[in-house]
Design goal:
about 40% helix; homodimer; alpha/beta; Rossmann fold; 4-stranded parallel beta sheet; about 450 residues
């Protein structure tokens, strides 16, 4: 059987990021100040982010140039490879053509360094010495530690406590790159101490870890904060994935009917599909379908409330208009598959609200089953998060088989699972079960939302 | 700083393996039958290996064609990337040019699938249903499980017991690809039961795990055995690495003064350097230096006996003329860095004996220190085994700085360390110490060698 692997010459790597904001049919609802509840100005974000990133967050330029130094660093692992999944197609006996763009060959093994090195770069240029951040499964913390090593920045990572102990390899990766990783809640911040006083066994959450990282960043002049997903500038940096994929599909002479990506905060999926979405918005490819895949245990897009909410547990971040399960969301412990953020990128929220993208929630047993099918046919063991996209890619290919239509599917393969084998072990040994986050809990979170859930 | 990454178009991937045997200035001493102690015939190996691999083991053809189906499968991850280590050079302030060929982007994360898929392919063609093997750190067992998944073969892996419990992620990777992995010594073989009766806490060794895998393979008609290093055909399959590197260096217009690789059984290092060694043998590059790097705790090439020895603990395999620490060698438990085989590939042994390649033993603290320097500059976290090659690459670059000579160094980066973070943790938390395998123990092993150590 012919293998098809497509490599882009690095001379043709995108030299600018694609910013979807000017192409949206309606503007994004603005972020609000957590105190005044009024639209934010750039100066409100200055304690957290370098001015260049704040500008990118709010920019209306369609293309933003990637600094040459950054382009050079990207070449350590980019452009990434696009594959045609011939073996998987054959195993599924489907007429569909399945392509996947694989981000797992970066040094930290995921798409996260695409924005981590960009954020480290702009912070370094502005004289910042330290960056704090949070991490859930650990992919983001390791990517930022990697970026910190390249730029000589000190990185401090608050890792959700339950993951800190479940995934010890991630902490060691961060340390290997010179980063510091501590479990959250910690005794190092006011919010951490408060939570531990209330519940010494608190397992932590992404929202809480963000609060701790933000609290530390605003308290020190030499320190900024960095977020690995959700925000506009993060999705912007990830568009390098989709721009590469687009050039490569053009070279092949093919174009996707459906693009599938997994979403926690949403950056890898949006990074892949936004450059294609442009063709849907301008009428070139009006029928393009885009599917965001999330876990049934954290069903932000499919069941969340559409409202302004905080990005963190303690309510220190700006209010973002997004689909949310409430900023006090704690993921169920039975869930092993990542993607556990209570909110969703405002851009994806907005696109979903406008009916431009779809969303589907999947159960974890099905995602690991899909991961095994993928590994045994295509070879790559994906991260459990990535398996969500693989699940729906397989489902779409099976639909294709039913209808007989030879659809072209493009799947975002955000990272490898070599550091997540404990989750596969839990699956293989039958310790996992499916869990659907109860709608009542989501409704109940309404009363804790700022602006009364508007 | 300019990054330099070199990618070979897959159309230019080597279509044959390079066999060094016909180019050797003296022939290899022949393998001997473990019973008769007479030179082996092909039929003696038939219970273990398919005939095509036996032919390759003994072939005197300089180039052996890679079947088209295999070439296609290689394209799932090959050709692999060649990097110029600009950042590392700058950090070391060396005039040396450092290149590295990185095998860590294969699905199992190392060079091992280069031979695993080839061996699975030939076994499948001969109607074999099952393959047994052994694994130490787990890279080989996972690579063969990956290959088994691609060809629908059942894979059974005997994993050295101490590693089985220290590195649980590797077992889960094998299971994810459908393989079975059990700790060795096990109750499933005579030799395993015997060892456990003598010492229920026996930590196992590669030699012992080989005995178990061989015992099971010879006892079943549908089952063959597979070895991940040492043998001629394994080194042959790995020459795809060096052939790619050679074409790429030619494209760049550079040629190495020194090639550095880490050696356990020796396959990744030899795979990289044999195609270059050809130029040394034919006088094109007579001054090329080749350095094999091994751990001081398993100093086969630098302190081993040059003698016929068994490949396994129980004395079931053919006798190979090699540098050996004795087939009863048990690696010290303090050692975390892999490369723990008692013997050495006969080809490398022979080249070393002829003065065509060098060998150096390094201590583990220095290898992890080098690994950290590499990770913090080049981004990639290498496998602990690979860090041995990185250590000596850095040492050679520092020598270059002292002498002011701008040497060109080519380093074999055999795999990533994402599944080996426990070893990094042991290093970072100060649990490791250096250990030099005592010369007296090596001398004492002489009396257990077959043929009285001839």
């Amino acid at each position: 059987m012919k293998q098809s692997k497509y490599i882009l010459d690095e001379k043709r790597m995108p030299t600018s990021w694609y910013n979807v904001l000017p192409d949206l049919p309606e503007p994004l609802p603005p972020p609000l100040h957590p105190g005044t509840k009024q639209p934010l100005g750039p100066e409100d974000l200055a304690p957290l982010f370098p001015m260049e990133l704040i500008k990118q967050e709010m920019s209306t330029e369609r293309y933003i140039e990637i600094p040459e130094e950054l382009q050079d660093i990207f070449k350590l692992w980019r452009p990434t490879t696009l594959y045609r999944a011939h073996r998987l197609e054959k195993a599924l006996d489907t007429p569909a053509k399945i392509y996947y763009k694989y981000e797992g060959t970066s040094p930290p093994g995921s798409h996260k360094p695409n924005t981590a090195v960009a954020q480290a770069y702009y912070n370094k240029k502005e004289g910042i010495k330290r960056i704090t951040t949070e991490t859930g499964a650990g992919q983001w913390g390791s990517a930022l530690s990697f970026a910190g090593a390249l730029f000589g920045l000190e990185i401090k990572v608050y890792m959700v406590k339950v993951s800190f102990y479940q995934k010890p390899y991630r902490k060691i990766m961060m340390q290997t790159w010179g980063g510091t990783c501590i479990p959250s809640p910690s005794m190092e911040t006011n919010i951490g101490r408060k939570m531990l006083a209330e519940d010494p066994d608190c397992p932590g959450s992404l929202g809480l870890a963000i609060s701790e990282a933000v609290e530390e960043a605003v308290s020190r002049d030499d320190t900024h904060y960095s977020l690995g997903s959700v925000l506009n500038h993060v999705l912007l940096h990830q568009t390098i994935i989709g721009q590469e994929a687009k050039v490569m599909m053009e070279d092949i002479g093919d174009y996707p009917d459906v693009i599938v990506g997994c979403v926690g905060g949403g950056s890898n999926a949006a990074g892949l599909y936004l450059p294609f979405l442009k063709d849907k918005l301008d009428g070139t490819h009006p029928d393009l379908r885009i599917v965001n895949v999330e876990p049934a245990s954290c069903p932000t897009l499919t069941k969340g409330l559409y409202a302004y909410d905080y990005g963190d547990e303690a309510g220190m971040t700006p209010l973002l208009k997004m689909f949310t399960l409430g900023h006090e969301f704690m993921p169920p412990p039975v869930h092993a598959g990542g993607l556990r953020y209570h909110g969703m990128a405002p851009i994806i929220t907005h696109l979903h609200k406008l009916g431009l993208v779809e969303a589907v929630a999947v159960h974890q047993l099905g995602t690991f089953e899909a991961g095994l099918t993928f590994a045994r046919n295509e070879g790559i063991i994906c991260a459990p998060e990535t398996d969500h996209a693989v699940r729906v890619t397989i489902d779409e290919a099976l639909k294709s088989k039913e209808t007989g239509e030879a659809k072209t599917i493009l799947c975002g393969l955000s990272g490898h699972g070599h550091v997540d084998m404990a989750a596969y072990d839990a699956y293989l040994s039958g310790q996992l079960e499916d869990y659907e986050y109860p709608v009542e809990k989501i409704k109940a979170s309404l009363e804790h939302l700022p602006l009364n859930g508007k």
